[in-house]
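**Folding the chain**
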Amino acid sequence: MRPPKLLTFLIGLSLTAPLLAADSDRWDIPIAVKTLDNGLTVVISEDHSAPVVGVSVVYKVGMRLEPKNRSGFAHLFEHLMFEGTPNAKEGTFDKVITGGGGRNNGSTRPDYTNYIAVAPVSALESILWLEADRMTTLDFNAKTLKNQQDVVKEEIRVNVHNQPYGGFMWIDISQHAFQKWENNHDGYGSFVDLENANLDDVRAFHRDYYGPNNAVLALAGDITPEAGFALVEKYFSKIESRPTPAKPDVSEPLNSKEKRITQSDALAQVPAVAVAWKIADRGSVDQAPVAVLAEVLAGGDASRMYQGLVKGKEMALNIDFLFGLTGPFEYDGPTLLTLFALYKPNIKSEQLIDEMDVLIANIVKDGVSDAELARVKTGMLSDWNNNMESFLDRADTLAKFQALWGDAKVANSVPGRIEAVKSDDIKRVAAKYLTAENRTVIDRKPAAMLAADAAAKN
C-alpha cells in the first residue's frame, strides 16, 4: 500500500524543515531524560513543527561485545530482531510502520546496535508496543535462524567477497591495526562462526544484551516529555531488567611500530590504499580537534589531500576519510581515523603516502589558517544542524549519545566543541596521532597488477 501523499509530505517536512533558534544562532535541542525502574533510559526531544515522530532504540551491544567464536553474531541478531515474536509474526513490524507512511531500519556498529523508525505521531503507540514486544522475547526457531544466517552470509558475499575493495578500509585495516580480539575481528563474521550459532546462543544473547537496562529509547518530534514518558512507561515498565555481562577491557595504547600490508584484489580495476591511525578516546580533549583535522585533510574537494593529491599532483583518483563504521563522536572504544584513496596504476603507494606525510607535516609545522579553519568548521556545523533537524536522525543521535556518553545532553555541546578548535589544537593532534609509528597501511592492488609485478621480477 502506498502511503497517502499528505503523510509522505509531512514526513519529508520533518526531515528538511529548518528549525531556528528564536534568540540566538546557537540551537539548543530540547532534551528530557528519565530512567524507568527497570533501567530503561528514555530521551525525548519535543518539536511540534510537523505531526511526525522519530524513534530510536539503542542497545549497548555491538561487534566488540559479541561472543568469541561467534564473530558476526551482533549483526546476525540485528536481522533476527525483525523476524517476529509470538505476538507479532514476521512482517508485522514493517507492515505497521510502512503501511502508515513511515519507514524503519536497523544497524550494527562496534559499540551499539540501533533500531530506528519515523512515522506519523498517530503510529507511535503501535511502534512502542512492537518495540516492547521484541524486547521481551522473539520467535526463536530453527527455520528463522537458518534463514537469517543465510541472509547475513549473502550480505557478506555481496558487500565483501564480490565487491571491489570489499570493505578493506574498515574490516581488514582494523584486523591489522588493533591487538585485542574485541577490536580486530571481522564484525560481519566468518561463515563458520555464523553457521555454528544455535538457538541456545540466540536465546542467551537476547537475554544478556536486549534487556531494558541495557537499552536507550529516544523520541524526537511531535510529543511532549510528559506524554512520551507516560507512553513508554505504559508499554515498557513491565519488562523485567536482566543481568548484563560486564564489558571487557577493550582499551589499547597507540601503536608504536608501523605496519604495511599488500593485498590482492581480483575485482579491482585500479589500486587503492588505506592509511589508518589510532585516535583519541571518547571524551578526550583531542576528540573534536581530530574530527576537524579529518575534514581539513580529506573533507571534500577543498581539502588539503584533494587539492594536493587529486587535483594538484594528480596521483590519486579520489580521497576520503572514515572513523571506522561510526562518526567522530559516536564510539566508545579504540577507533581509527582512516584515509582511503584510489590511486593511479603508474604511481607507487609509497609515493602517495610520502606526499600524504608532507601535507600532514605542513599542518604540524604551520597549522591551519583562520580562513580555512572557519570554512571547515562552518561546514561541519551545517552538517550537524541539518542532521539534527531530521526527527529520525535526532532521535538516533540522542539515543546513541545517552548510550555511549551516558548523557544525551552532550549532543548540545558538540557544536561548541567544534567551534572551540584552534589551529594549535590541530597541530597538536596531528603531531600526536598521525605519526608513522602509529600508522597501519594496506595497499590493495588488482590481482593482474601484482601478477605483472611478480613476472617482471622474475
Observations:
- Residues 1-24 have pLDDT under 50 and may be disordered.
